[in-house]
From TrEMBL:
Residues of the ABC transmembrane type-2 domain: 34-263
Protein species of origin: Streptomyces malaysiensis
Coiled coil: none
GO cellular component: ATP-binding cassette (ABC) transporter complex
Protein name: Transport permease protein
Amino acid sequence: MRGKSDGRIGPRANLRHIGALVRRNAMQIRYEPFAMFDALAMPIVFALLFTYVFGGAMTGGNRSEYVNYFIPGLMAMGGLNIAMSIGIGVNDDFSKGVMDRFRTMPIARSSVLIAKLIVESGRMLVSTLILLIMGFTMGFELETGPVELLAAVALSVLFGSSLTWIFMLLGMSMPTPQAVSGMGFLVMMPLQFGSSIFAPTATMPDWLRAFTEYNPLSRLADAARALTSGHGAVAEPVMVTLGWAVALTVVVAPLAVRRFRNKTS
């Protein structure tokens, strides 16, 4: 028997359902600690790899300068990596019948996806904090203050959360977890490496620079750098990033909920 539709469930009941599902997803992480591996290990691996392999070449041997450039940029990339993992997880849940059981319950269809979004946002926050700890250990210098740093963290998590809707939709649209992973990398690679995360756009050819300047990850990286260094424009990249986050959520979230409601296999 199918559960009640979203329209028959009041806001209070919906919040209770979301809270229960958040606890369930959090308990899964508790009993499967390997699920936190990407959030804990990837920031450390990326920080060490890019700083000590490419940092010297990028700045003429001055790795400390590259750390100050790269760590805020890496904050922009962390949410994208974790968002892809949730798409794989959603696809796997459908293949195991977990989502079908949820859809037979008298709960709002959106509550299942919102609960996943909340837990993944928490993982993004943990990943960003690990990155910052690693960055400070490697010599990252905060030239503004804690308020600006918190704003950069919040902006990164907010944008990463908006990307989560895309990968949840992708996870429900692809036939296998491997297909989700392959399609995710096709999306991730141009966005990550065609951005200002790793190198200034001024060093790129004109045809690539045109793409990087409109890449939302570039705008997020620029905003994080301005907030942590105190140099460069802040308002413009912050507003553009917020605009991207709101637009992605408004457009993709209803599509993901509809796909979840109507998915048959």
